[in-house]
Amino acid sequence: MRILIVYTTRYGTTERAVKLAKKLFEEEGHEVEVREVKENPSLRGYDLVVMSAPVYRDGPHWDLTDWISEHREELEDVPKAFFLVAMHLAGSVFMGKLHGGIAYSQPLIEAFEVPPFYGTLIGGEIDVERLSDEDRRKMKRFYAVLGERLESKSLYREEDVKAFVRRTLLYYDWFGKHFRRGEVNKAKDFDFMEKVREMEAKLDAEG
Ligand SMILES: Cc1cc2nc3c(=O)[nH]c(=O)nc-3n(C[C@H](O)[C@H](O)[C@H](O)COP(=O)(O)O)c2cc1C
């Protein structure tokens, strides 16, 4: 199938993950175009759109969410998946409110009537030396809230990108193609665990 990967990046980690994802989709026999959001790519003719952005200030980078707002109508009609790149992967609960972790993806779900069929978070990187003064100040505050000190570290793992690609292709077959506009109620009743049990039975049968 024809895949469009749309992304934005500030320090390059998301771009690295996107390039690997492209290579992995191609190895599975798919045709992949990679475009930065600032190129304002059109969506015509793609079977799958993958969106990717780093998390900045508690949410997906605004360049991606702006692009989504601009292309929302077209995006409703194409199966879509996403991965976000972040440092606070596990997430926290502050006074009963979800913060960080997969909760970072909420704006990418709420943006649509037909939501992305799959999305996940992968680990990012912080290189203190490369941060602008302003970003360093912001990151210091970010880690202070987590009770940690700002230091260079990498949570980026190629395995996570591989898992994203593998699962996107698997779930595309399961439900990526099946829910169109006006059929979202059908998706609400979709029994994910039923699908898992079906897979288990298939694997058992194969021995
Ligand atoms: C100013 C700034 C704010 C950030 N805010 C968050 C945040 O709220 N949550 C988080 O998990 N990571 C945050 N990060 C970490 C980035 O998501 C991480 O460094 C990522 O690898 C950046 O991707 P990029 O290299 O593609 O720009 C922040 C980083 C910077 C520099």
Write the layout of secondary structure elements.
Blueprint (H helix, E strand, L loop, with lengths): L1 E6 L5 H15 L3 E6 L11 E9 L2 E2 L1 H15 L3 E7 L5 E3 L2 E3 L6 H5 L7 E6 L1 E2 L6 H13 L7 E2 L3 H19 L7 H5 L3 H15 L1
Parallel strand pairs: 1-2, 1-3, 3-5, 5-8
Antiparallel strand pairs: 3-4, 6-7, 9-10
Helix pairs in contact: 1-5
The structure holds flavin mononucleotide.
Q: Keywords for this structure?
A:
207 residues, alpha/beta, two-stranded antiparallel sheet, 7 helices, 42% helix, binds flavin mononucleotide
Number of strands: 10
Alpha-carbon distance between the two ends? 30 Å
Low-confidence stretches: none
CATH architecture: 3-Layer(aba) Sandwich
How would you classify the helix and strand content by structural class? alpha/beta
Radius of gyration: 18 Å
CATH superfamily: Flavodoxin domain
